Each structure stands twice: as C-alpha cells, then as structure tokens.
C-alpha cells in the first residue's frame, strides 16, 4: 500500500506579492495614518468624527500589516503580480 502526498505548497498568505518599494511606502503611510487617527481621535467632537478617525486608524493598520508581511490579499485575489517580482510561486 502506497500513500501519495500532495506537493508541498506554502499558504497563499506567505507569498510576497508586494515590491520592496511598495512595502516601505505602505509601512510609512500606514504608521502616519495610525498616528494621525490617534491624534485626531483625542480631539474628536462628534460621533461622525470618531467613526471616521477609527476608520483612518483601521486603514493605517491594514497598510502597515500588508507592508510588513509583504502580502496583499487583494492582489492575490485579483491574480496581480508586479512585473518587478516576476512570476514566483
């Protein structure tokens, strides 16, 4: 009796699909959005302002995380690979 195993493939979230330049830009922009959101949140005057500032912080977190990991789930879903990265698997 033989057991066949599937070829080893790393999970999709481990693939790097963002260029180094874009990664740095995402981290910088994300951190700036997080800091701006927190600073604005301290002086929020209305519920609408609070909601918008929390959304700004969430967007900043998304940018910082995707930049730090090098993986953008939207790029993966769309099948987009930057030309600079080529066709890696």
TrEMBL record:
Membrane-crossing segments per the record? 27-52
Specify the Inner membrane protein YgaP-like transmembrane domain's residue ranges: 15-80
Which InterPro entries does the UniProt entry name for this protein?
YgaP-like_TM
The entry's keywords:
Membrane, Transmembrane, Transmembrane helix
**Protein name (database record):** Inner membrane protein YgaP-like transmembrane domain-containing protein
Q: Which organism is it from?
A: Blastococcus jejuensis
């Amino acid at each position: 009796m033989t057991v066949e195993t599937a070829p080893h493939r790393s999970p999709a979230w481990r693939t790097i699909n963002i260029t180094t330049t874009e990664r740095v830009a995402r981290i910088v922009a994300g951190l700036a959005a997080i800091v701006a959101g927190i600073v604005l949140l301290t002086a929020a005057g209305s519920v609408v302002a609070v909601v918008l500032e929390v959304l700004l912080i969430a967007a900043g977190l998304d940018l910082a995380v995707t930049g730090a990991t090098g993986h953008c789930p939207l790029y993966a879903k769309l099948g987009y690979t930057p030309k600079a990265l080529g066709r890696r698997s």
